[in-house]
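REQUEST ID: PR-0412
SUBMITTED BY: lab tech R.K.
PRIORITY: routine
TASK: structure prediction, single protein chain
INPUT:
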Amino acid sequence: MSNGVAVPSAKQITNVTFEPYDERVIRRVLVVDDSRAQRRVLVATLSRLGFDVVEAGSGSLALQIARSSDIDLVISDWMMPEMDGLELCRQFRDIPRDHYGYFILLTSKSEKGAVAQGLDIGADDFLNKPVNPEELRARISAGERILRMERELFEKNRLVIETLDKISGLYDALDRDLIEARKMQQALVRDRLLDFGRAEVALLLKPCGHVGGDLVGAFDLGDGRIAVYGIDVSGHGVASALLTARLAGYLSGGAPAQNIAFVPDADGAYVPQPPAQVALALNRLMLSEVKSDLYFTLTLAYVDLRTGEVVMTQCGHPHPAVMNARGDVGFHGAGGLPIGLIVDASYDNTHLMLQPGDRLLLYSDGFTECLGSLGEELEEVGLARILRKNVELESSEFVEALVWDLDDFKGDTDFSDDLSCAVVTYRGSTPAK
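STATUS: complete
OUTPUT:
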């Protein structure tokens, strides 16, 4: 006995076992009590259990220690002068810490209201005085289990945050690359307004993401004819964009020898082959060389600038629209199979005539399948309405107005598909000056 306080004997704590010190989550314990005798009891018991014990005779001193050193567990008397255990607990919780600190209040109080008040302040557990060593050990073991779970969760969160930071860095790098890829894809359509004298071609390319799978273009066939095309590759991502870049090379307006639309004749001169034959050549190329799960739809039209005759092949692409100067709209074509799906696919040529003032529109299904604010598709009827609304606009303003009106139709939602179109405005036999 010491000052009327029972000190636990060695026998009482002989059977108490803890993990090796370097594997514990509770290493340093702060004992707070204004009674020196009570502190001696707890310090002796905890020291025999192998803990690093620090003691304080007041709440203010305990806070100084807690702020300057890493304390895993606080065992504090409830009733102390100046600052009681509840206030100490409250201020201890306000100290910035990397890890949670476990807090046990020593009390002779048994009222449920007092215990509830302690829990509300932030205490984790309670011990009645005088402290029983076995109960103390059990309470500390319970605290270790909780702190171990907290440390494991902290470590997992740290790894998650570290991984998210790495992913964020990779995403930022990928985002920068995609922005550059978008610039390069947009460069595939260098000139958005092409003047061929008797006809003018306006081009629109608007991917729904950074990059897309649509492509439009036009090139000179020679002998008073031009070729205009619209392509829609399946998907919207990087793979689709890469395929559009490759297709742009096959339909380049540069040297005829590099354009799949041209073949050498008996004299070695390059002449254009019919649109349906170009589609067959592209289909063979996709299945034999590209060997991708991707496929694409295509409309390829040859326009004779002298007569207004149009020869075109439609390969799964939406039906081309023709609008006259009065605003009357008609849709042409027979559908056809996409390119890159079937080995023995066949394609046909369709003929139609343009009159001076007519417009030929090759567009992707991002227009007709655009969803309105009520979930309805625009379809050909809605597209015809938008075309008529803008019939009097010049070519470049015309294609921009189509996007504005489509944006108004869909409401607040984003475009869910790429948008592309090529608009041929046929002037007639006398070219505009």
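NOTES: The domain at 188-426 is CATH 3.60.40.10 (Phosphatase 2c; domain 1).
REVIEWED BY: pending
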